[in-house]
Amino acid sequence: MKFIDEFRDRELARGLAAAIRQAAQPQRDYHFMEFCGGHTHAIARYGVSDLLPANVRMIHGPGCPVCVLPIGRIDMAIRLAMDEGVILCSYGDPLRVPASGGLSLLRAKAALGGSGEIRMIYSGADALCLAQQNPQRQVVFFAIGFETTTPPTAVVIRQARALGLKNFSVLCCHVLTPAAIASILESPEVRQWGSVRLDGFIGPAHVSTIIGSRPYEFFAAEYRKPVVIAGFEPLDVMQAVLMLIAQVNAGRAVVENEFARAVTREGNRKAQQLVAEVFELRRSFAWRGLGELPYSALRIRREFADFDAERRFPISYEAVPDHPACECGAVLRGARRPQDCRIFGSVCTPENPVGSCMVSSEGACAAHYSFGRFADAAVAP
Amino acid sequence: MSRLRRAYGRALDLRHGRIEMMHGSGGRAMAQLIDELFTSRLGNPQSGQGNDAAVLPAAPGRLVVSTDSHVVSPLFFPGGDIGCLSVNGTINDVAVMGATPLYLAAGFILEEGFPLADLARIVDSMARAATAAGVPVVTGDTKVVQRGRGDGVYITTTGVGVVADGEDWSGDRARPGDRIIVSGGIGEHGMAIMAQRESIGFAADIVSDTAALHGLIAVMRASGADIHVLRDPTRGGVATTLNEIARQSGVGMMLQESALPLQPQVAAACEFLGLDPLYVANEGKLLAIVAGDDADRLLAAMQAHPLGQRAALIGGVHDDPHGFVQMSTSFGGRRIVDWLSGDQLPRIC
Q1: What ipTM describes this predicted complex?
Q2: What's the average pLDDT block by block, 10 residues per block, for chain A (381 residues)?
Q3: Domain boundaries, position A352
Q4: Which CATH number does the domain housing residue A193 bear?
Q5: Nearest to residue A332, comparing CAs of A69, A31, A55?
Q6: Which of A66, A278, A306, B112 could be A360's S-S partner, Cβ–Cβ 3.0 to 4.6 Å?
Q7: A288 in the same domain as A186
Q8: How far is the alpha carbon of A14 from chain B, nearest alpha carbon, in Å?
Q9: Model pTM greater than 0.90?
Q10: Closest alpha carbon within chain A to B317
Q11: Partner residue opposite B334 with nearest CB, options A1, A37, A47
Q12: Which is it for strands A200-203 and A227-229: parallel, antiparallel or unpaired?
């Protein structure tokens, strides 16, 4: 496949692995956080860790939109379908996330008795079509994701207004990447106790195509952490690791862009304007694992209030504590590895996920369970 | 037959007619539907007997019986439809046990309002598949459910075959040192369905691989290779089927990603939707686990058959108390190829 295979080339990987081994100084070790679930998935799926020396450790970050969604937000979506009788449209990956009362969107879908429906869709545009096809029904798009999925949501909201639709609204759960990075860097594990060592970040791929590389400059300057923005292919990740090692060795902390084929410093201005037109900052938003973070998420502006499901329907967010044994929070902050959790692989599996990190294939726990747990068992053919 | 048809007054309207509740009520309308739409197409001596069951000559050996329900949506897809799928799928389930498939039975659950023209197309397709495979449909049943209580048509087929004594292909017989062969490109059926369902334009040339495999299997048997396990990787794909076998046999497996036969358009569609072709359904492929020394001989025999041209050695079996199926990635790393958990869901980013 053109433009895919080139970034998964075995020989190039071998060359990069050798360069990384040479660059990594044996007397020290390197702890890098890959922010995005897309990176986590690539590392696990292609076995990138096998190609890294033992003193280079990857820490999985919180950049999986499904994983950071708190239970209370899923509950809101379920209530819309169950109590308000709407057609609730969701992307595929949130469907299995555990919610309150032993439910998930998938289980709620199976249990729905009334007029409500839960449908999987591929984009907000599909939800808009459903609203047009079912004028007598209320259709709600469960919009989640980081900055990558936000502009398309802005587009459908604008379209809905242009079409004068009265039966379409959006449950907006879009969150912001820089806020999450700041929260990790400010966490006591990193700042005070030093129990989580972070020597640098692999910065987001798709998110950065929208917001550009400029927002990370603050982290490099203020917290003295190198950031290398990288694509989601395995060679991208390895190249970024090499660039991070070089920065650490040289005592530098700047933002570098490995993903130059798609990311500029300024990002996609048009998309940014679109987002600014439709959304505004929320004063505070609850993240799974990271807690309430100020100005870390978006809500729909008053001008588009007609399309805001939180205003149209009598629902509000109620915080629900995570399962007491679940360590998703610590995993999302990089404080624990998936296999350190007591219930990993026993009580909590992809079939019966307790925490959200076990749900999406981008979640740190699911990625380790599905692709990497042979390493814990230490068997080799 | 012509005398009977006159008794119904008017022939079924196969252009504009639809299934009505009376077609399942046991009366004259049902008899007419069975005569004109089913028996006339699937026609054979047994189903023409008009009795409650088919009476058939017994064959020597042990009986192999398998049943499979088909609920595919859409009913018609590139490369096939629910009709030929229901014939081929059940023939394959019987044949992978090493058996010669002999007879099929078919049960139809029809939804009120379903167009008779579509039903005729489906039954024609079944007839063609059964004739091509040389395995007749000898008895059947139809029921009608109210509109909104079904998806047009569901078809359950049951297959009967015979297997010679001493032929023991079974999922618990994989042994360390065995090799794993797949008979051709993976994921084609599942991606053909998904491309149609989700209207993915660039994937329009992906065609379902639905096919009856007993001809290929006969060639494999004739090669004299010591085959331990044969299975068709349908739902859950190659990954799930290999995990089933690894668990049944208490062994581990190691696949080579670079050896997996995969059409570029299937790879592209999977990439686009964030799916893994190892978990996508096949309907005309089989996995063979064969004694290591016989692997090359079996592979050569398979590649000489039209349905096995792209057969490939994809890995081996080893000792592993955990029963892990692993893969050495093209990239140079290693990972687990786990059971499919839940449905494969497209990823958002």
Answers
A1: 0.80
A2: 83 95 96 93 90 93 88 96 96 89 91 88 93 97 96 98 97 96 88 86 96 96 96 96 98 97 96 98 92 95 98 95 88 88 92 84 86 68 42
A3: 328-373
A4: 3.40.50.11740
A5: A69
A6: A66
A7: yes
A8: 8
A9: no
A10: A381
A11: A47
A12: parallel
